[in-house]
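Lab notebook, bench 4. We co-purified these components, and the gel suggests they stay together. Before we commit to crystallization screens, I want a quick structural picture of the whole thing.
Request: model the full complex, all chains together.
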Amino acid sequence: ELKVEQNPLFLSMQEGKNYTIYCNYSTTSDRLYWYRQDPGKSLESLFVLLSNGAVKQEGRLMASLDTKARLSTLHITAAVHDLSATYFCAGNRIQGAQKLVFGQGTRLTINP
Amino acid sequence: GAVVSQHPSWVICKSGTSVKIECRSLDFQATTMFWYRQFPKQSLMLMATSNEGSKATYEQGVEKDKFLINHASLTLSTLTVTSAHPEDSSFYICSALQGSGANVLTFGAGSRLTVL
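Here is the predicted assembly.
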């Protein structure tokens, strides 16, 4: 059974700093997703990673996938306050079926 | 881009009543939709997979008689919480799969249910 674990669960950082959120998953997943959620809102899709070694970047966020280590990372570069949100990673429980298993979420607070 | 609309965005009801939440794909056809629930400050848990023209597939532990799902058309799935109780208060989020075999999942804005 696929389990997805994120760490840290809470992260408070200063603007301008870099940090990484880690997402470990227990069994094979044919893709790995990253989402952002603002308080009281639904999910905003950030990245879909499909293969080993995949790296995707959008602005100050960069996601990578290591399928051998069953690890995905979300790296934040030179954080700004607008990036404060909860970030979820999710794996696909059944190949091709899009039945997502979410991590616990990482609540990121970026202080001026 | 693909848009999934949920309605209502929030609802308050009395204990024992039933509430229907709609999930519509606005500019694409979705043969498969998914319903999640999210308790405050927690993660999302998949409740069921809604398939157009067939019965929904429920996840383990989800009561199918309590959470009725209907996917009568390629653009609409509904979730009805029957005989709602305070413990059913949650944020319900649907997502729709765009096209068969596609990687694209689009999430609705969510529906916040409060049962008094």
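Chain A has a mean pLDDT of 92. Worth comparing against the SEC data before the next meeting. The CA atoms of residues 34 and 47 of chain A lie 5 Å apart.
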